[in-house]
Fold each of these.
Amino acid sequence: PETITTPKEEEPPMHQFIRKILHEDLQKSNEEKILRLMRKLNWDDNEVCSVAIQHLAGGWRVRASARRALARLTAELAAWQESVAPAVVDAILEEIRVTMEDPHPRYNQRRIATVRYLGELYNYKLLDSKDVFTVLYSRITFGVTNDHSNVSPLDPPDNVFRIRLVCALLETCGAYFNSGSSKKRLDYFLVFFQNYYLFKYSDPFWTEENKFPIYVNYIYQECLTSLRPKIVLYTNWQECKDAIEEIRLTLYPEMGEEEQYDNDDQGEDSAAD
Amino acid sequence: KDKKAKAHRPLTKIILRRLPPTMTEEAFLEQVSPIPEHDHFYFAKPDPSLGNNVYSRAYINFVNVEDIYLFRDKFDGYVFLDEKGLEYVGIVEYAPFQRIPKKKKKKDPK
């Protein structure tokens, strides 16, 4: 139904140029040169500025091998153009949000690439660990019911892709969450992530004939054990729920029984101790 | 103690989402003006590669926290129209990323 054929408008040459140097030409070896070209753009022109930001945010458009170069270029450019870094991160977080509101699998490859790119941007300090955790927690909470009898259209039982997205992000930058508050944040997050995993895994949707995909199980285990080699994974959902209850009582003893735990602030508070 | 104070700094940057994709910055400002005292404003054009999910959005960093609530009461759920008369219901939320550009502008010698 969506085949309305409007003649494609020719992109302005400047847009084509930005797209070409960032998404086709850029690689590790010519990064300096392309950075110089990017610095020479007319950043006072709103149109140019907005197109440049969009393409700098388009980490999913580049080959995996050029992803880190694009992140580094963005970080270096941000030293000269102050508005670039927040605008790029804002654009990526909005994309992540929009593609959660529309959980269609057509975005899956893009979702993975985008989340890895965000991880790279964290590695170049364009965002804080707490921002990465905001994304991680949104993946395991947005539209998630934690109740098998209450099926969420945003996170249907057969959709296990969010597990892969969490793993992809942790794979990209999780190794840096190894000291101070970010280490604690990760430790807490991993409990909540296990909870989400076990919620998905134990869904009655999966049966003997229609098993939970084994490769997702591998990715999950590999991810957790490479981050925390000594981790003992919870094997059933109830066990994990009990552990979360314990965390809640430790961190928020004043909270009433019915209150939901507030995922996002776990690390924050423990860091302030 | 400093750490604690820092952790509880209030959120001041909001995002107004799901604006009409064809909306211009000027048209947006015309509709929402006057924006209460703010030190950062950024209007983002949509990402056309998102297929059916193409929207414009705007970011505002407010100076006074109280203004956020007033702004939200007015524009969360506010119906914006595009030039064809299609309705877009705006959503006001705290921006997930609270950083804004630093004020002082360095001149790039290039």
Note: Residues 259-273 of chain A have pLDDT under 50 and may be disordered.
Amino acid sequence: MAEVSLKDVEKRYAMVPVLSGLNLDIADGEFTVLVGPSGCGKTTTLNMIAGLESITGGTLRIGARDVTTLPPKDRDIAMVFQSYALFPHMTVRDNIAFGMKIRKTPKAEIETQIRQVAQRLRIDDLLDRLPKALSGGQRQRVALGRALVRRPGVFLMDEPLSNLDAKMRIEARSFLTKMHQEVGTTTVYVTHDQAEAMTMGSKIVVMNGGKIQQAAAPLEVYNRPANQFVAGFIGSPAMNFLRLLYDGNALLDQACRLRIAVPECRRAALAGQQGKTVTLGVRPEHFRILQPGAIPGSDSIAFNVDVVQHLGHEILLDLSAGDHRCIARLPPSDRSKLGDDRLFSIDMDHVHYFNGDSGENLIDYAWQQ
Amino acid sequence: MSDATLNASAMRRGSFASVLPKLAATLLMLVLAAVWLGPLLLIVMTSIKSNAEFLAGPFALPRSPTIQPYIDVWFGLGFGTLLRNSLIYATAGSALAVTLALVPAFALSRMNVPGRKWIFGLLLTGLMLPQQTVLIPLYDTLRTFHLLDTKIGLIIVHGVYGMPLQVLILRGFMTTIPPEIEKAAYVEGATDFQVFWKVILPLSVPGILVGYTLNFIAIWKEFVFGLVFLNSEENFPVTVGMLKLNSDRYLAVFNLPAAGLVISQLPIVILFILTYRQISGGNLSGAVKG
Amino acid sequence: MASSASRFDDGTFVGFARRHVFVTVFGVAVPLLVFACFIGYPIVYTIYLSFFEWNGMAPQKKFVGFANYAYLLHDKYFYIALVNNAKWLVVSLVFPVSLGFLIAYVMKARLVFAPSLLRTIVFFPVTMSLIAVGLMFLLILNPVFGAFDTLLRSVGLGFLVHEWFGDYRIALYTLAVISGWAFTGMPMIFYFAGLGDVPKETFDAARIEGAGHWRMIRSVALPQLRPVTAIIVMLTLFESLRAFDLIAVLTKGAPFGMTNVLGYLVYMESFWNSRFGYGAALSVVILVIAGSLAALLLGKVLKGAFDV
């Protein structure tokens, strides 16, 4: 058991910084998910924690120790790879025993450990098979077993579920979560799948462009995104963004006669934005469709229905108003048709306001609390 | 490319134009088969003819096949010794080449060895060097180490000159091993040596076999080094020993040299049959294009 | 201890060596040492020797400056050999390389029955020593008992019968064609593998556009195979500079040095005429030719073929 702490960690390749000023504290026992689009630096970060890539600046602590320059084997970590990275020429037993043999653990001890882990993962009848004779899910559990048997302070997982098919992935997701609840080991988990991040993590670290965008609990990230990137990355379908002009009272777009009044309680936060562009963020579920003939309010927009997607339990509408494009999530009872002009109201309690240039969330939630 | 795809273009039109390429190709194949197989068959045929039958002409089928030419040429040239020597050179020389190449291939396939471009340049130099240009100094070097006209000397030369190609072949193979497997071993606490010995080496066995076989054949074929660095007949490999076949004594009647040729190639034929699939597959392209 | 904290990173050589002792010793140092002794030193020594006169026996070598090179410029046999190398190269590029491609294409397109049999037959001579190949054709091209001339006479082409190895006008071409016969399997399998790497969709697309085989070869296969062609051209180049075995077993440069090539001339001058200094100078010329051609090819055509 150990906590992990990155302080001003930096990564340069041939003097070009790809990651810089990385600060992150992961508490003991926490299941932390690093999530972001490909190339955001999440895997590099994981590899630096593992010791597979050097840290070119800053310090990394695991437990009480500074491990910045230590090789992987001295870091008290275990790792599960995307491709499982089982040794193809070794049996399941030898795969799991590999690390213990290297550390010259006594034979009897190795055998006991293997049996315990195999039972827990339900792979005890596969021990003498070669990896090629296993299914994807079984391989994944063997890879997990190889990591578990070390009883490390920290588990590192690099997209361990992305090679599984959709059904297996959901099973494995809950399996991993359950395993974490039982074992309680600090886990750092990398994925590009925001749904995986939301369901598994006790803490989500959203990364983009080599920087941490936000690190917080899943619902916190969902409900109070630090900036436009986080808001757009977490949630599916993604949050809608409307770039509008702020006149001190309302957000407007002259071209398509759009005017949305900003509630009194938010005007303070938007005070500095008068005369500038503000991006309004609205999640698809925060649109409400108004009955034909309803009177347009201060929070309503007229949209044209471009596409209707019936998903059974809900309906997604692709909408447009001038240059603005939105997706709304509606109950299955909705009867909108292609080409309809419909009036929607926005749930103004749940919208977000982002700086039109920097994308920063203009509401300071920390201050508000 | 699917084999059917190319063909289908012709099939579709189903006219004379579609038959033409196929006809031309079949004709080509028959001519090629005659050109490539003909000489070999003629030699095998000649090798089992008696002197009298030989005079009946090269295309006359042997009516009473005999192995006498084989017996004569075997003892005349001392093929027992020659084959044994070639076997020693090819076996040990290839083993040395592969052994020397394994760790460099590992390093070049997996690590950012500083100066790797230079190392590759040296490898290519060794690969392309016309051997004739370095015969004199090599001769000198071998003499200095008292290795001239010794089996061990020739084995070392073969091993060293086989190494560059082996590095490329093995590197090509090792780069196909997923790096994550190796990273997993590092995380589990393995050292460079343990990763190499317990993970990379066992997984490289198919590549090693391909490289070894190709090197074996190359040494079996080699002629210049054997010619220059050896003086005693008891050290000659087959290629050097066979030169004697080009003499009036053996060329009076062709069945003896023909039998000698067949004997010299027989071990490779066996190896060829055993490993043809591996060595003629796409593996060679993997050696040069990582 | 060779630990691995940063094994996937760039670094200085000293840093690398300290972290990866095992790899540095057995993966870099030992091979480099072996290389230096048996390949590097000989090259340097050859260059050194080219400035001396030496019969290979005398304890003292006589420094002669550029005399060996000056002699070379007036040596008739050098020019014959040089031109012969060029002829050999042209024959090698035309015959085995283009035929190898054609066979590979025809097999891949399944235009022939039993393609793998054809492949095996054509590849087989690649495994034969050139000494064996040479002896084989010595028998087959023999003017009295040889199968080839017998065949020519029997089909009424007797006027084509030649002293294949004795006629100074054709002997070199005979040798080059024999070498091509033995070499064709090499370009064939390279092209075969190369064609296998071309995405199926590329050919599908061409087919949908209505391309025939000729078009397919010209516009799809050959452009896609350019890297393979570059490698084969380079291989052929160096093989032709190495040409030795066939000449040693068949003609020994005769008649009148008309079948001599540089690779054999070096050997003759050094080990038969005991002019080691002059042999070294010839070697240097070969090295310069080989080196500049390699640099040209590696720099231009092959960029990325050996992705370093």
Note: Residues 234 and 279 of chain A are 17 Å apart (CA to CA).
